[in-house]
Predict the 3D structure of the following.
Amino acid sequence: MRKFALTFLAVIIISAPLAVSAQRDWRERVAQTMPLMGHRNWILIVDSAYPLQASPGVETIETNASHLDVLRSVLGTINSSIHVRPLIYMDKELPFVADADAPGASAYRDQVQKILADYTIEALLHDRVISQIDETGKEFHVLVLKTTMTIPYSSVFIRLDCKYWSADAEKRMRQRMH
């Protein structure tokens, strides 16, 4: 029993710096990547069971951090950039996830709704979003930040768009070109 306790204590002592390192590393990676990212790039804040995608442009990082903390941090980084703004997508299935099947689902929906209150959220079927990310990852960079979230269909998918050029401005320019 004493040997087990010592081993357990050693594992905790050894793994604690790794958890701190993982949390620091994902924040650093977001900060390093943000100036390079532009419209058509994505940042995903996903639950712990989100699949590891094989498309060449998809980079996945385990954050060992709270889903909502990662979301707040990423939105802060995006909003403080001069060149991109977030377009928010969430799984269409989330409103139908019952607390009886996934304890905390209702509380999560309330919390994420407050964080995203200033954004328009588009709901898409989960399989459709994953397919879109897979296709995007063939040509563009996608940063996937895995969190400790254990509620299904809780992922927040952020497609970056140009902050200083709107869809309306693009449309007007295209009309002038004809």
User: Anything to note?
Assistant: The chain has a mean pLDDT of 89. The longest strand covers residues 84-91. The chain has one domain: 2-177. The radius of gyration is 19 Å.
